[in-house]
Structure formats: C-alpha cells, structure tokens
C-alpha cells in the first residue's frame, strides 16, 4: 500500500481528485507538479506540505518560489523538475496524471527507481508500451492503472488466472454524440464536444471521448498492460457508466467491476492495492441507477476507434503516430481551426504518411510522434 505519493499533474482533474483521496485516506503528498498554475499549486503546497513542487514554466516557478518562500517546500521547473519529482527518494508511488506524451519521460524515470506507477497517462503505453513494460519488469516497478476501465479490468482479473481469460471487454459511454450519424457530426461545435454525459474531465480527454478515440487508446493500452492480443479485446457501448469494464473467462463467466462514475475510486485503489480502505468515492445505489444497457460501437460514424484498433493490430510505431496525430488534431479543434470530423481524417492521413517502424527504439517512438504532429499541421494548413 502506498504512503507517500508524487502527484504529477496535481492541478488537473485527476490530480485534484487524487489529492482528495490523499486527504481522506491519510496519505502524504511527497511532490506536486503542474504546468503554469502557480496560484492553485501554492494552495496545494500550503495544505499538503510536499517536499517538492514543480511548474513546467520557469516564469511560473519563479512566482511560486516567492509565494511559498515561508514554507519548507523546494520549487523546481521544467522537464528536469518533473523527473526529479518522479525520482524523489521519499515517494513510494508516482501518479502520472500529465496529459499526452509529455508524461512518458517522468514515467520512465519513476519506473527505473522501482516505484509503483499509478498510471493515468494512457499515452505512455499507447506510444511505447513494449518498452515501458519491459523496463517495469526489469526494475521491479508495478504499474497499477487509474483509468476507470483499466482499473475495472485490473480488479476483475484477480478473479482468475491470466491463462483462463477469454476476452477483455472495455465499456464505453458513447460520449455526447451517441446515436448520431456522420452527417449529424459535420456541424457539432467545440462546446457540444465538451459536454460529456457522465464524467467531468479535462478538455482533451473529453474530446477524445466524443470521437471515441479515448476508447481506442484504452484498447491499445490494454494490450500492453495485460499482454493480450487485439483479437481478445472488445468494446461495448454502456451509456450509464456503471459497469466500468468486464473480463470474460473460458468458462463463459463474466466478472465486472461496478460503481458510480467517480474517478476517486480507481485512484484510491491504485494507491491502496492490494488493500481496500474507506474513502471519498460516492457509493452506488443499485435501486436508483436504473436499467443498464449495452450496444455495439458505430465504427462508421466514429472512425477514430477503428483507426486505433487497426493501429493496435499493426503494432510498431503506429501507436505513437496515432497518438501524436490525434493530440495535434484535437488541439486544432479546441482552437477552432478544424471541424470535429477533421480529427479522424487528419489522424488517418498521418498514419498513411509517416513511415512505419516495426520495432521502434525510444528515439524512434519520439520521432514518430513528432512526425505525426508535423503532418497534421501541414495537412490542416491546406484544403483537404
């Protein structure tokens, strides 16, 4: 069970909920990191008294140093500061809640220190899953997922042996546009895409949920986390977000993990595993949650999921290309520079144009990510 936690991304949605768990469960925050929000990070420093606080922007870090000069907290900045937080000797667990491939380097640093990784950064495994899992085995680092779906799989897999698993089933809310056709989706706006029906999340992951790319990234992540081939993983639409995912065993028994749509539960389990303790998560009232429904995803109207599944089957650097292109395209959409359906179109073009590498090194993973982003910016600057 974790006692002292470095929270990478403490001012984001996952980070703030993690601090609620730390507060309620009597744990310690060894380090807190953020991008540029010095004011909020100061509030967190004063409450949780971490050994280290990190801001990516040096100007924000200078501001924070002045703000917390009367505390015993050291302030660092930049990627080197993130790595320092990940490697901090007094921390036994590192929560990686940084969005995007930016979380890869500090995650690898923590793994090499043998720390428990409470993984909320799915891009780490999407881009470099083979390399990350090899490092975790070599350094004795345990990766415990924080995503609600992967936490559900992690918990349900404890009901049997890995060799007895017939299928992993990822549930998907369907996002705000469930049931819409491609024609309907041509006119949706940024504001429409940010209205998730069940979960409160950051802007990037909320758009990914609207395109179903989020589920595609989770599909690839599941392959690496649980060493499962793509043909043993499937996706089902479950609008209510009560069953968070299921494992089907060879005897045809299905084991599911259920709960309210409250991220504090999987965050807490990543900290306390293999123990369970009282915590802040909202309990599930079975008599009030209503009927539970299931359906197949519409891969024609939501091609991002199909692109991710194809990338999973292809392997190599395809995951890094997929993720880099998607991050760039979602950024353009949030800035109002492209339409909603342009996101999968740009990702597909990048997958076609960036050279495939079947067994990439870490350097080649990062090169594929950068090349995909450049392709998206190049294509989007012209009529397509």
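^ Assign residues to that structure.
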């Amino acid at each position: 069970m974790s006692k002292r936690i470095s929270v990478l991304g403490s001012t984001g949605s996952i980070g703030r909920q993690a601090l609620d768990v730390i507060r309620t469960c009597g744990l310690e925050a060894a380090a807190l990191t953020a991008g540029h929000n010095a004011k909020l990070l100061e509030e967190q420093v004063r409450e949780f008294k971490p050994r280290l606080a990190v801001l990516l922007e040096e100007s924000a870090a200078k501001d924070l140093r002045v703000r917390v000069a009367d505390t015993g907290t050291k302030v660092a900045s930049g990627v080197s500061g993130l790595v320092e937080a990940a490697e901090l000797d007094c921390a036994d667990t590192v929560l990686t809640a940084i969005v995007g491939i930016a979380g890869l380097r500090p995650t690898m640093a923590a793994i090499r220190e043998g720390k428990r990784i409470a993984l909320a950064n799915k891009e780490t495994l999407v881009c470099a899953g083979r390399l990350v899992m090899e490092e975790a085995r070599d350094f004795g680092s345990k990766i415990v997922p924080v995503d609600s779906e992967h936490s559900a799989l992690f918990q349900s897999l404890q009901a049997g042996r890995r060799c007895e698993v017939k299928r992993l089933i990822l549930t998907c809310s369907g996002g705000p546009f469930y049931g819409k056709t491609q024609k309907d989706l041509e006119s949706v706006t940024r504001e429409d895409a940010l209205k998730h029906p069940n979960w409160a999340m950051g802007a990037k992951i909320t758009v990914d949920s609207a395109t179903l790319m989020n589920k595609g990234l989770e599909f690839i992540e599941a392959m690496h986390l649980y060493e499962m081939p793509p043909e043993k993983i499937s996706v089902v639409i479950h609008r209510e977000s009560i069953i968070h995912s299921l494992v089907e065993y060879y005897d045809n028994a299905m084991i599911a993990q259920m709960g309210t749509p409250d991220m504090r539960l999987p965050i807490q389990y990543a900290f306390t595993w293999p123990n369970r303790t009282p915590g802040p998560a909202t309990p599930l009232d079975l008599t009030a949650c209503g009927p539970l429904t299931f359906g197949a995803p519409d891969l024609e109207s939501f091609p991002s999921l199909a692109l991710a599944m194809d990338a999973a089957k292809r392997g190599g650097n395809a995951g890094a290309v997929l993720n880099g292109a998607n991050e760039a395209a979602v950024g353009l959409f949030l800035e109002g520079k492209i339409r909603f359906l342009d996101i999968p179109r740009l990702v597909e073009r990048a997958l076609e144009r960036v050279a495939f590498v079947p067994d990439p090194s870490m350097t080649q993973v990062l090169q594929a990510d950068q090349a995909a982003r450049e392709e998206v910016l190049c294509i989007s600057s012209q009529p397509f």
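The first helix runs from residue 13 to 25.
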